[in-house]
Design a protein that fits this description.
By secondary structure, the chain is of the alpha/beta class. It folds into 2 domains: 121 residues, Rossmann fold (3-Layer(aba) Sandwich), CATH 3.40.50.720; 174 residues, Rossmann fold (3-Layer(aba) Sandwich), CATH 3.40.50. The chain is built from 11 helices and 12 strands. β3, α3 and β4 form a beta-alpha-beta unit.
Length: 307
């Protein structure tokens, strides 16, 4: 029996790294996405047509895509979230879906703080000003002493809590799937609107609700303290961007740091706000975490196909 055929559809994969070397020991790589971009539906269908497995990223594995690949047995996602994959269709066709939840936690937590510090200290604005000879200044905001509400308290949310606690913040969290933790100073808040009402800053680390509806809506924001800062390194769908746009206009929300937005690449109305910092979905993209994620994704493939 020949080697399993694997399509690497993720938009970047180190073909010189240890993970790739391990992969080609056990499998034949039939296609590699070397465009640097996320594959669209037709490109994805072409890439996986004859594959037994795929190493994927944020590209959309819709019902149409999945059913175009009759030999597909496993989708191994580089990263945490699998909401870009039609899991019901995978289940009907007995296709295994796995991810790499441990590897990116520290990197995403650090990026969360990078976005937070950038919004509090106006670092992007100062950078642009100074390059144009403008050395005018404005007041920043201290992080120490602030109340931060964390929405979603899994691996990444807890790592963010550790870092924020070290910075002198009071940490609250909302997560209906996590019990109160009595051995640490982090306090569980039972309702999302209560968390937002108590917080100076909110940071999102939740999976999207099964309903598909955003968590941060106009109604939820109406409970916020004036001057709220929002950080999102989870999913763009968690925030109603029209509500955020309006809250920025009114001053209810003072600033936002977003690594994820509704459509990527983004060209929407949030770009008109100088107090909104957007990065291109790169929170987990450190050298170290990427290497570990790729190795975990390959291990998932090799282990499954060897069973």
């Amino acid at each position: 029996m020949g080697k399993a055929k694997i399509a690497i559809t993720a938009r970047s994969f180190d073909i010189h790294g240890e993970a790739y070397k391990k992969l080609i020991q056990y499998c034949d790589v039939v296609t590699i996405n070397q465009t640097g971009n996320r594959l669209g539906e037709n490109e994805l269908i072409t890439s996986i047509q004859n594959a037994d497995g795929t190493i994927s990223g944020t590209e959309i594995f819709s019902k149409n895509v999945i059913e175009s690949a009759p030999t597909l047995k496993i989708i191994s996602r580089i990263g945490v979230g699998i909401d870009n994959i039609d899991l019901d269709t995978c289940a009907r066709h007995s296709i295994k879906v796995c991810s790499t939840p441990d590897a990116p936690a520290i990197a995403v937590a650090e990026h969360t703080l990078a976005l937070l510090f950038s919004t509090l200290k106006h670092i992007p604005q100062y950078y642009g000003q100074v390059r144009h000879g403008d050395f005018s200044i404005s007041y920043g905001i201290l992080l120490s002493g602030k109340t931060v509400g964390i929405i979603g308290f899994g691996r990444i949310g807890r790592q963010v809590a550790v870092l924020l606690s070290a910075m002198g913040c009071k940490v609250l969290f909302f997560d209906p799937y996590v019990e109160a933790i009595h051995s640490v100073p982090w306090k569980k808040i039972p309702k999302l609107d209560m968390l937002v009402k108590k917080s100076d800053i909110i940071s999102l680390h939740s999976s999207p609700p099964q309903t598909g509806s955003p968590l941060i809506t106009q109604e939820i924001l109406s409970n916020a303290k004036k001057g709220l800062i929002i950080i999102n390194t989870a999913r763009g769908s968690l925030i109603d961007e029209k509500a955020l746009d309006a809250a920025l206009d009114s001053g209810l929300v003072a600033a936002a740091g977003l690594d994820v937005v509704s459509h990527e690449p983004y060209s929407g109305p949030l770009l008109r706000h100088s107090e909104v910092l957007i990065t291109p979905h790169v929170a987990s993209n450190t050298v170290e975490s990427r290497m570990r994620m790729e190795m975990e994704a390959v291990t998932n493939i090799v282990t499954f196909l060897g069973e």
